[in-house]
Amino acid sequence: MIRTMLRLTARPGCESVLDVACRTVAGQIAGLAGGVRQEVLRDATDPAVLVLVTEWVDESARRRYADGPVATRFVDAVRPLCAAPPRERVMRDAPTGSTIYVDVELTVPADRRAEFRRGYVEVLARMAGVPGYLREELLREPGSDTHHIFAEWRGEAEFHRWIGNPAHAREEAGPIAPFLLDIRRRLFHAVTDPDSSREPSAGREADVHRTTDVLVVGAGPTGLTVAVELARRGVECQVIDKLAAPPGQADKAIGVHCRTMELWEEQGIVREAMDAGVWLTGNMVFVNGVETHRMSWELPGLPYAHLGLPQYETERLLTERLATLGVRPRRGTELVSFSQDDDGVSAVLATPDGGTEEVRAKYLVGCDGAHSRVRELLGLTFTGGLGRFPQLFMLGDVDVDWDMPDGHLLRFLHETDGRMDGMLVCVPLRGEHRYRIATLAPPRFFAQTGGQDAPPGFSEELAEPTLADVQAALDRLAPPGTRASNLRWSSVFRISHGIVDRYRDGRVFVAGDAAHLHPPAGGQGMNTGIQDAWNLAWKLALAVRGIAAPGLLDSYETERRPEGEEIVGRAVRMAFTDELDRADLERQFLQEMSLLLSYAGSPLVGESVADPDALRGGPGPGDLAPDVAGLHRRGVGHPLRLRDLTRGTRHTLLLYADATADEKALTAMAELSADAQRQMSGELDAYLLLSPDARAPRLPAPPAVVDADGAFRARYGVAGTALYLVRPDGHVGYRSQPVDGDGLRKHLHLLFGGAR
């Protein structure tokens, strides 16, 4: 990809005419072949300066414009309007020379613009002394809050040396740090002599090169979650998907688990999900027409209930969130091949126009589903082979007229001589009497396959089931008199199950259905993939920045593959039974909702407990850190949740002290938190949690929060002094009672051994 930036300075009184000329030519460029972006930016500090930004698929497309009538007319029109000759910079996103340009896109709300400008002036002064830094300009998209810091550096190594040292980056960029939380960063290389780059010889297709930190293959829920989490941390990523457009229906994933809802609260889409979905409030099971059990899913203490939401809505919400972070999936783009070396991955992509391009990334994540190309290219195999269900299933979206309680997932089984020979699952959708049904497909579909094995997923070669097919299943299995109508969509579906032998190969990872396949019993597929992404992304972000310990990325497979094995096995066992464990249905439900998920067996979690009874009842290493309420912070007029402290993209250190802790102990805890923050290169938030009878120390940091109702003490089992380290994914990484500073430092070295 080629980018040009043409800087024009208007003569006094010609500002508005020059602006019109630039916007006119931008509109004309939009209609030219090979143009992918055209935008007019204004210098944020000099209203007389405009910058015309264009991006082209390759050099030949740019050259056709530069030599063509549109550019000629534009140059002739603006020459008398400019106070100085226009200055153009040509760059590309693949290495071509030593000089590089860094474009940081950020949001500056109008009501905070003065605050930002004051800080930015100080940042400019500080940056002047940074080795390799040359200059920069501040640009703004007219009529919006979007700004661009466009900086020039002597070389890529010097830029990465600076950005890779968070302490230095924080020192220079500190005055505008609050505005750098959600940014989009792009790196370009200068083309020193653009006129020397001519079109390729006849018959040879031009190569397009891109660079990025992480290439994500697949724009389903798993891939989108990876991308959102990377973008939230300022890591550049590209997302590709071979589908030209996102699906508008035809999904098997409907249930959004309670734990996934918590993650969406972190990502900022939980309200939109609740508005678009319907609560699943319980389930009922019938065997041969007789109700065998009914369970309410509205259990006390759940962070969120179980939500019914079609997968295409999930993808819409995640795609929209990703767009707010400056990343949009490149659809109609397919992975052809890749190779990797010690420094990164080179991927060849097929583009929508029939061409190819190469992307160079530090890491690649395969989230490309059941038919994963990444899995195929890595040569991953399914442990024990890929199991296939001999049955074909049909799915449909229909209205069902019956007398059943709202919000309940309904399972109807038929048994003959103790053997299951019929099943019907009905999941509520948004809308009156609307359900997604799943049942065995009529025999004629199996006959059409000739009994041959086929890939898992939706069938493309078989006809769509009819409303009569749905009604026949209801007549056999549902209560008498049940009627179906308004069939909106239907398909035949095949189920396979298995888990790959490894989740990582060098700099390439697989997640979601690319790593594990299983029946949709319990709605595990999509939610498990999202959990994979949640575990992997924060570790990848640290690795990209060069501050991850060598074993941190290995922990993705160590932690997630056992969970995948357990879920695949449980889903297969549950596929044709009325229930797996009737003795403890509540625990089974919590397990299905991922609320009991623990990485207790991970080598990257630990504890230091002097008394065997210490921290008894509290979450153990690897467990989810439970939320508690009733916390009070000075200056805040309402109680806080623990989640208010741990929310974000960093680790959180919770230091607890009650009235038995003296001033010396509190001072030591403050020193420990400062030391931990240095060791973690700033990737740590720390808080001092005090029992109501403890005296708040006169220390500037860490911030003190009072456990006013004793909820934290009771739920975490703390007394005296204690600490909990909560990872960015919400799991306990380390705990100790009393506070063990040396133990914490050793633990942090397992995570941040590469920090400087």
From TrEMBL:
Keyword Flavoprotein among UniProt keywords: yes
Flavoprotein keyword on record: yes
Name of the protein this chain belongs to: FAD-binding protein
Highest rank taxon of the organism: Bacteria
ABM domain: residues covered: 2-91, 100-188
Cofactor(s) listed in the protein's UniProt record: FAD
Alphabetical keyword list: FAD, Flavoprotein
Cross-referenced InterPro entries: ABM_dom, Dimeric_a/b-barrel, FAD-bd, FAD/NAD-bd_sf, RIFMO-like
The organism's taxonomic lineage, starting at the top: Bacteria, Bacillati, Actinomycetota, Actinomycetes, Micromonosporales
